[in-house]
Specification:
The complex is a heterodimer of chains A (about 100) and B (about 190). Chain A has about 100 residues and is an all-alpha fold. Chain A has three helices and one strand. Chain B is mainly α. Chain B has two domains: about 1-80 and about 85-125, Four Helix Bundle (Hemerythrin (Met), subunit A), CATH 1.20.120.1200; about 135-185, no CATH class. Chain B is built from seven helices and one strand, in the order ααααβααα. Chain B is globular and about 55 Å long. Classes of the chains: A mainly alpha (about 100), B mainly alpha (about 190). Strand 1 (about 1-5) of chain A pairs antiparallel with strand 1 of chain B, so a sheet runs across the interface.
């Protein structure tokens, strides 16, 4: 038997590590990977609650999160390719066109 | 036994996530995320979510991460040089983030500490998931297909070459090729 709180704690730790990566990493691809890590942390909480409440809806929500993550990855990576082609850098600190 | 299994893969997932942060090269970060995803797939299996576990491996670790690795290799992405900026953000941000995590975990422990999840108590097989998906969630499922269509179009438009410069170069190369072949034959 594993307490539900252990799963939620693991979920929170993964989410916070994803936030840390999103804020502190300089590489735009790693920032994008950190977003995927946050989504994974949330998915674990969904599945844990689905098990605890004996409801299948948590599993369905995880399915939809994965679908949206797939679409987001396709569009996001296309944006990264466009940025790399136009600015020739992957450093988020140098992408300041809107600020300048 | 279930707790041991949970702890092994929880440690693996957290270690992978920390490694994702430590590594400077994006390809190592991507591979760390694949390790996290496999560890989480085992957690889903422990929770009885068979369908999600296999989707996690096939779609997430298989398709999405391959796309990431593919783009990293296409762009030949390397390490980004660390910018000479102040470390104040790290000195304040990391403790605040750690405090946030501790607060969330404390709340969760207080609210759900008594709930125990047993192995195999609630098994979600693929059949019920499909049933629910095509009855209760039919409209979101259909909207998803529109989302994918828009996503594909957006990806093609964004990643397509806007400038026309390389096209004459290719045409030139093609035009020169027969000449070179002819020269070779001579």
């Amino acid at each position: 038997m594993v307490p539900l709180s252990y799963y939620l704690a693991l979920s929170a730790i993964l989410f916070c590590l994803g936030v840390a990566g999103f804020i502190f990493k300089q590489d735009i691809i790693t920032v994008f990977i950190s977003i995927e890590l946050m989504l994974n942390g949330v998915n674990l909480a969904f599945v844990a609650f689905s098990h605890a409440l004996r409801q299948i809806d948590g599993n369905i929500f995880v399915f939809f999160v994965m679908v949206v993550a797939a679409a987001e990855a396709a569009v996001g990576l296309a944006i990264i390719i466009a940025v790399m082609r136009n600015r020739n850098t992957l450093d988020v600190d140098q992408m300041t066109k809107l600020r300048d | 036994m279930q707790l041991t299994l949970f702890l092994i893969f929880a440690v693996l997932a957290v270690a992978g996530a920390i490694n994702l942060l430590i590594q400077r090269h994006p390809i190592y970060s991507a591979l760390s995320l694949v390790a996290v995803m496999f560890a989480l797939a085992v957690e889903y299996l422990i929770l009885g979510a068979e369908f999600i576990a296999f989707i996690q491996v096939i779609v997430y670790a298989g398709a999405i991460m391959v796309l990431f690795v593919f783009v990293i290799m296409v762009l030949n992405a390397g390490e980004v040089a660390p910018a000479p900026k102040s470390r104040v953000a790290a000195w304040i941000g990391l403790p605040v983030l750690a405090l946030f995590a501790i607060l969330v975990i404390g709340q969760v422990y207080g609210a759900f500490g008594a709930t125990q999840l047993g192995l195999g108590e609630y098994l979600v097989q693929t059949g019920p998931v499909g049933n629910s998906l095509f009855h209760d969630f039919l409209l979101p499922f259909e909207v998803t297909s529109v989302l994918f269509l828009v996503g594909v179009l957006g990806a093609v438009v964004l990643a397509a070459r806007q400038d026309k410069a390389p096209k004459p170069a290719i045409a030139q190369a093609e035009a020169e090729e027969p000449k070179a072949m002819a020269a070779g034959q001579r």
